[in-house]
Design brief:
GO biological process, one term: proton transmembrane transport
Order of helices and strands: HHHHHHHHHHHHHHHH
Largest sheet: none
Number of helices: 16
Strand content: under 5%
Subcellular location: Membrane
Radius of gyration: 20 Å
Number of strands: 0
CATH architecture: Up-down Bundle
Shape: globular
Membrane topology: Multi-pass membrane protein
GO molecular function: antiporter activity
CATH class: Mainly Alpha
InterPro entries: Cation/H_exchanger_TM (IPR006153), Na+/solute_symporter_sf (IPR038770)
Number of domains: 1
Length: 348
């Protein structure tokens, strides 16, 4: 375990995802965006699962990597959009997708991890009932805890005058979420995502007031978290996971591209959205790496197979992140320029 820093960073990451799931944001989702999100996320999930299963012949590894592959990193994408001052249908679509599909990735991981544990734990028999019921219980329990704490904080916020006090209470809520989720065996990521969603919808004014404190305090925490995650890198394993890493990266890119293109086409999205959205969804650092750390927690205590899975996932994600963070922003930039939505490029 990497301790309180890792706990808090994971909580903040999940809380940030939930913040984007406001009713106003969800209402803005066009039919085309909803279709693209579903098809690009599941496209990556299914294609990566099939490719990894064909290579490793281990279903639990394939399911975990498939679930993680569905996440998209918003940070690099948003930076490119801001740099180019891009505006238009493609820009709106990309920003909406990267905000929503991380939530879908957390739900997919909850299902995948529950099924994977059935195959790893000795003496456990697989059944469709347990494969469906256990993740549903985990998701529902996490949502109840997160929403409950979120409502409690929101309704008591009328007596909170200081932005700093409110920020401290939110951080305390995140930590309580983590403790309760671990105690009951629920997903701490989903619990904190639902906490962020509840707070953003019931206390939007106070959330805006602490946005400055939030944005100034989280970068240091994230840097420490990613440094700790990077410490798991085992150079000896790179030669073993090299081909698997390349296959994972290729399958993920292909799944996202084909899924996004198909979703855009069947929903009759604008031509620029159909043509370029899939090329703008390749960055994966952030939630994907956070999920890799969670895999280490969830499976590290499940014998040799669990430890091997945890080590393989974190090292594969660290290895492939280098590739996607080089290729991803470049393709996003190229797509925005080609679509004619890059204002900065047009001015220069």
């Amino acid at each position: 375990r990497t301790g309180i820093i890792s706990d808090l960073a994971l909580g903040f990451i999940a809380f940030g995802i939930g913040e984007e799931l406001t009713i106003s944001n969800l209402r803005k989702l066009r039919k085309s965006i909803a279709a693209i999100v579903v098809f690009e996320a599941f496209g990556a999930f299914f294609l990566v699962t099939l490719v990894v299963l064909a290579i490793t012949h281990r279903l639990y590894e394939a399911l975990i990597l498939g679930a993680i592959s569905s996440a998209t990193a918003p940070a690099a994408t948003v930076m490119v959009i801001r740099e180019l001052k891009a505006k238009g249908d493609l820009t709106i679509t990309i920003l909406s997708i990267v905000a929503i599909d991380d939530a879908l990735a957390l739900i997919l991981y909850a299902f995948a991890s529950s099924i994977a544990k059935i195959f790893i734990l000795p003496g456990m028999n697989f059944s469709i009932f347990s494969a469906i019921l256990e993740p549903v219980e985990e998701i529902f329990g996490a949502l109840v805890i997160g929403c409950g704490i979120g409502l409690l904080i929101s309704f008591s916020s009328r007596w909170i005058r200081s932005s700093v006090d409110f920020f401290v209470i939110v951080v305390a809520g995140i930590l309580i979420n983590i403790g309760l989720s671990n105690s009951f065996g629920f997903s701490e990521l989903l619990a904190n995502m639902s906490l962020g969603m509840t707070m953003a919808n019931f206390s939007p004014r106070l959330m805006r007031r602490i946005s400055g404190i939030w944005s100034s305090s989280t970068p240091v925490l994230y840097i420490m978290f990613f440094c700790l995650a990077g410490a798991h890198l085992n150079v000896k394993l790179i030669s073993q996971i090299g081909w698997l890493g390349l296959a994972y990266t290729g399958a993920r890119m292909m799944g996202k591209f084909l899924g996004a293109s198909f979703g855009a086409k069947i929903s009759k999205a604008p031509r620029s959205v159909q043509k370029y959205t899939g090329l703008s969804l390749f960055p994966q650092v952030g939630v994907a790496l956070a999920l890799a750390v969670v895999v280490g927690r969830d499976f590290g205590g499940y014998g040799i197979q669990g430890k091997s899975l945890a080590s393989m996932v974190i090292n594969l994600l660290l290895f492939t992140t280098v590739i996607t963070e080089i290729i991803g922003p470049y393709l996003t930039r190229w797509s925005l320029i080609k679509s004619g939505e890059a204002i900065q490029e047009a001015e220069s």
